[in-house]
């Protein structure tokens, strides 16, 4: 109960990142599955390194079998996040010999790259791919093709140049 006498229901934390945040734009939909006693962010589940979707879309949780989710949570409890230093880091950098593990929100904060396709790989801040800037001269800024706010023509973590149409520039958050 808060200071005004109003009951505030706290959502349980995500089984992967242990955060209570409910920010679908950043972490994907957060849902509680009472029948399985599991609360998770969709992206925390999707990007976890030791789990694969073995069921159909309507089986388990988004096609991930509940027993596999529990095994992945157990595996992650042994892993320490290189960002926040807490246990439960379920995501690892895919670069060979890189030992970095992190929670999805910690990876977002450190500007890791998450690939939402194929094997759903993740790259830490030291190994993330860097976009090569075109050598063709362009104006110094132009509107983001999605939100129409101006964006500087400097490829970085937050700014991307279209690989096919070199005159189109985007904010990363507009594309995700």
UniProtKB/TrEMBL annotation:
<keyword id="KW-0862">Zinc</keyword>
<dbReference type="Pfam" id="PF13771">
    <property type="entry name" value="zf-HC5HC2H"/>
</dbReference>
<dbReference type="GO" id="GO:0005634">
    <property type="term" value="C:nucleus"/>
</dbReference>
<dbReference type="InterPro" id="IPR034732">
    <property type="entry name" value="EPHD"/>
</dbReference>
<dbReference type="GO" id="GO:0008270">
    <property type="term" value="F:zinc ion binding"/>
</dbReference>
<comment type="pathway">
    <text>Protein modification; protein ubiquitination.</text>
</comment>
<protein>
    <submittedName>
        <fullName>G2/M phase-specific E3 ubiquitin-protein ligase-like</fullName>
    </submittedName>
</protein>
<dbReference type="InterPro" id="IPR013083">
    <property type="entry name" value="Znf_RING/FYVE/PHD"/>
</dbReference>
<keyword id="KW-0479">Metal-binding</keyword>
<keyword id="KW-0863">Zinc-finger</keyword>
<dbReference type="GO" id="GO:0016740">
    <property type="term" value="F:transferase activity"/>
</dbReference>
<feature type="domain" description="PHD-type">
    <location>
        <begin position="11"/>
        <end position="128"/>
    </location>
</feature>
<keyword id="KW-0539">Nucleus</keyword>
<keyword id="KW-0833">Ubl conjugation pathway</keyword>
<dbReference type="InterPro" id="IPR042013">
    <property type="entry name" value="PHF7/G2E3_ePHD"/>
</dbReference>
<dbReference type="InterPro" id="IPR051188">
    <property type="entry name" value="PHD-type_Zinc_Finger"/>
</dbReference>
<keyword id="KW-0808">Transferase</keyword>
């Amino acid at each position: 109960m808060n200071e005004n006498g109003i009951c505030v229901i706290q959502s349980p934390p995500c089984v992967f990142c242990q955060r209570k945040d409910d920010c679908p734009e950043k972490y994907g939909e957060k849902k509680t599955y009472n029948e399985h006693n599991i609360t998770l962010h969709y992206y925390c589940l999707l990007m976890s390194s030791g789990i694969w979707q073995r069921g159909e879309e309507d089986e388990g949780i988004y096609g991930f079998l509940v027993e596999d989710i529990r095994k992945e949570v157990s595996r992650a409890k042994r892993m320490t996040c290189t960002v926040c230093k807490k246990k439960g880091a379920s995501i690892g950098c895919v670069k060979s010999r890189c030992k970095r593990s992190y929670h999805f929100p910690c990876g977002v904060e450190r500007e890791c790259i998450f690939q939402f396709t194929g094997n759903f790989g993740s790259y830490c801040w030291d190994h993330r791919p860097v976009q090569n800037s075109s050598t063709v001269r362009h104006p110094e800024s132009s509107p983001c093709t999605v939100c129409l706010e101006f964006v500087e023509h400097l490829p970085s973590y937050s700014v991307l140049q279209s690989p096919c149409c070199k005159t189109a520039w985007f904010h990363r958050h507009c594309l995700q």
